[in-house]
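Hi there,

I know you've been waiting on this one. I reran it after we fixed the sequence typo, so this is the corrected version. Both the input and the resulting structure follow.
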Amino acid sequence: MTGALPAILRARIAHDGPIPFRDFMEAALYHPEHGYYTSGRAGIGRGGDFFTSVSVGPLFGTLLARQFAEMWERLGEPREFTLVEQGAHRGDFARDVLTALRTNAPACFAATRYHIVEPSAALRAAQSETLGEFTAHWFPTLDALPAFTGVHFSNELLDAFPIHAVAWDGTAWRETHVALDGERFVFTDLSITDAPLQAALAKLPPVPAGYRTEINLAALAWIDALAAKLTRGFALVIDYGFPRADYYRPERTTGTLTGYAQHRRVADLLAAPGETDLTAHVDFTALAERASAAGLRVAGFTDQHHFIVALGTLHFPGTIPDTPASQRELRAFKTLMHPQMMGRSFQVLTLEKATASPTPLTGFRFAREPAITLGISPSAATPSPLSS
């Protein structure tokens, strides 16, 4: 465990004492110079540390472009339609979406303004190079983004937000910190003094002693910031996670916090800060509740399998041509929607604001009632077609 970031963290702990795991994770992923994401070290695809739907090929962006075009129509085809992407990595999704809009929905393409929220200078440069002929505008944070009408999109963004790791000792919740044992980073549990964390923990169901899990307060703050910027339109979130009742099942005793390197789980999450992807699943119920409080409404919730299958009805003709290009698309489609691959691992949540959508979006054609699935108030969600 050598390198600049471990030394920085050791010095901080030696001076201040144990730090919350949330702070360790934030430094490991987002330190301005040495963070896993901000340094450009994160590798996606076969030669990297993990796969995403974007790395399957351009079909993911092509299908989402069809959903974005439908959202543009639902908004009354505004002359200026803003697509905001956050977590764009190297810009492949943005390129795929804009290419598809230009081909399949030219009127929507003409109205589209593409904005990317990206704090990393290295990634902004990579995104600009990938986009090539297309125009985009960059903003370092959501706070710097102007108010907009359109769609905010994120894919595997919230799972990388720094989380609070917690443990139930049988009588009280304790927060997991990172301490030093010689030169090694080790976990230790300490009492909780953070009021927002205590409030979030009060919503959890009963769990057995020794139970460990996570709370993502950063995702709730993110919803507040996004709601303040979205004047009218949608937010579409794709990530792996569960509704609260499933996330905090009593038998899920070790939580969902995981580290990845070269497509394999790492045994020691603390061993190589800045070189390992750290991630935790998303509590979609908490997200939906906070969205409702911030003035947003759940427009749909389903898994990626049902979402991609529904969008496929917009994209694929009745008979798929037996050409190499069409067969490549078909293979990509099967990967994106296959229940044992990406189809059931990822969930899709869409929020709406001031849209008055009379019917669910196409992507949620086969979705169940979102209020029931998420365990939220029916007034916070638009009924699905399957609820009648």
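Quick highlight: The domain at 57-161+219-242+281-382 is CATH 3.40.50.12710 (Rossmann fold).

Best,
R. S.
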